[in-house]
């Protein structure tokens, strides 16, 4: 008896992120209205949906490069509405900013390909699964104008860094979908609690007080005190996470620092930054200390 896995998705301000219930990868849609109605891609004109929840590759953009598992997606703006040619610089605003924020937050992006982009689709649009924004940058295109580019990577791609960090369940036969599902669930699960802890601490590291600023906004990482997955089985709850800068995240994961019962970060002898909205369970700190051999 196997229970169906819960659909990994979440909603922010009416925007659905991740998988859309009842919409499997490969599902076809007749047009943009059908995509909109099914909540796969909101809006009828723009390539980037509100908050970057999805993108449509529609063949209109000369700079897009599609390699299947990776896509170099060109941002929006600066194009002539009639010819589609780049006639001005693109800015890191609106949809472009939303995709940049997707990377900082680790949010998944649904990718839809259209028949004008991919001739094998013949007609309409196809939902092609979840990708993540792996990096983004500005460059000058062959037309002489600045464009923003987004390197998108398929989340289910086994060689992606995310899956190496994921908790994959070895299984016989076709375990790939399960693996992908597990990883997507994990990314999204992390996102909810992670976003919460970052907001409470305003993206400031609870250990060293660093607050990193990027063009897409502040950046911080959520870090589980007692690790998730086997054999530690730490819970994905606020009581088991910290808001950390990447350096302190590595130090905690690699057992170089630990938190004592007085909320002091050792061996620094530094007080952990706390907030009344975020209570850490000392049991989880004790567990992590034991991993460090610092009982
Ligand atoms: Zn730090």
Average pLDDT value? 85
Unique ligands:
zinc ion
Tertiary shape: elongated
Helix content: 10-25%
- Quickly count the helices: 6
User: Which strand-content bin applies to the residues?
Assistant: 15-25%
Alpha-beta content class: alpha+beta
Please outline the helices and strands.
Elements: E1 9-12, E2 15-18, E3 28-29, H1 32-37, E4 54-57, E5 65-66, E6 70-74, H2 94-105, E7 109-114, E8 125-140, E9 146-154, H3 161-165, H4 176-200, E10 212-214, E11 217-219, E12 221-224, E13 241-244, H5 246-253, E14 258-259, E15 264-266, E16 270-271, H6 282-291
Parallel strand pairs: 4-7
Antiparallel strand pairs: 1-2, 3-8, 5-6, 6-9, 7-8, 8-9, 10-11, 12-13, 14-15, 15-16
Zinc ion is lined by residues 205, 207-208, 210, 244-245, 247-248.
Description:
By secondary structure, the chain is α+β, with helices and mostly antiparallel strands. 22% of the residues lie in helices and 25% in strands. The strands form 5 sheets. Strands 3, 4, 5, 6, 7, 8 and 9 form a 7-stranded mixed beta sheet that branches. A hairpin with a 4-residue loop joins strand 14 and strand 15. The longest helix has 25 residues, at 176-200. Bound molecules: zinc ion. Zinc ion binds next to helix 5.
């Amino acid at each position: 008896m196997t229970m169906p896995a819960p659909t990994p998705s979440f909603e922010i301000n009416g925007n659905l992120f991740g998988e859309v219930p009842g919409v499997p990868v490969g599902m076809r849609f007749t047009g943009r209205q059908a995509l909109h109605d099914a909540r796969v891609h909101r809006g009828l004109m723009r390539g980037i949906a509100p908050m970057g929840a999805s993108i449509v590759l529609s063949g209109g953009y000369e700079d897009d490069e599609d390699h299947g598992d990776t896509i170099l997606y060109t941002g929006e703006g600066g194009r002539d509405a009639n010819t589609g040619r780049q006639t001005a610089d693109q800015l890191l605003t609106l949809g472009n900013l939303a995709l940049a924020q997707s990377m900082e937050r680790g949010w998944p992006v649904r990718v839809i390909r259209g028949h004008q982009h991919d001739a094998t689709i013949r007609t309409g649009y196809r939902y092609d699964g979840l990708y993540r924004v792996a990096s983004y940058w500005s460059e000058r295109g062959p037309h002489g104008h600045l464009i923003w580019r987004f390197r998108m990577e398929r989340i289910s791609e086994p060689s992606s860094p995310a899956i190496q960090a994921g908790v994959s369940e070895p299984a016989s036969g076709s375990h790939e979908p399960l693996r992908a599902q597990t990883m997507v669930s994990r990314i999204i699960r992390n996102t909810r609690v992670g976003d919460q802890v970052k907001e409470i601490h305003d993206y400031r590291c609870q250990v060293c007080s660093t607050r990193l600023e990027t063009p897409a906004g502040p950046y911080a990482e959520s870090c589980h005190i007692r690790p998730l997955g086997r054999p530690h089985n730490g819970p994905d709850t606020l009581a088991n996470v910290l808001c950390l800068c990447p350096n302190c995240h590595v130090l905690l994961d690699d057992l170089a620092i630990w938190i004592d019962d007085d909320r002091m970060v050792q061996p620094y002898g530094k007080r952990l930054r706390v907030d009344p909205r975020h209570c850490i369970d000392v049991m989880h700190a004790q567990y992590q200390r034991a991993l460090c051999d610092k009982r």
